[in-house]
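subagent[fold] <- orchestrator: predict structure for attached chain, return tokens only, no commentary.
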Amino acid sequence: MFSIEETNDILDEIADSIPYELYRELNGGIVLLPEAKLHPKSVGNDLYIMGEYHSSLAMGRYIKIYYGSFCKVYGHMSKAQYTERLRKVLLHELRHHNESLAGYEDLILYDEQTIANYLERKAAQKQARLAREERKKKKNT
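subagent[fold] -> orchestrator:
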């Protein structure tokens, strides 16, 4: 597992490798937070939020990365794998930022569809489990 300081250093290296133009108007920068954040639609506490893009008049535009979520989901990985996951999340949030500037919502729609697929998969798993339990119950009677 990587410490929050190590993660911050890795995140800085990743951020420095990304073209500066992609940070245009990201006046709040990138914030690494210590907590883990469960997605509000998580089923069985298995869906964590890795990062979020925020835009508001009061706080400006900024990206949150959740160190605790990374620890829970990717803490077992090698440094190279962990770094690649951080890179993907940062690029994902930067895409939200740049789409926001351009007035696009493609990635928001993609994220919504991803959550809908997750919920469908979880519902199907629950149905399959209930059907197995029902068959087992009938078999035992």
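orchestrator: received. Logging for downstream: The beta strands are 29-33, 37-38, 48-49, 51-56, 60-66. The two ends are 49 Å apart (CA to CA).
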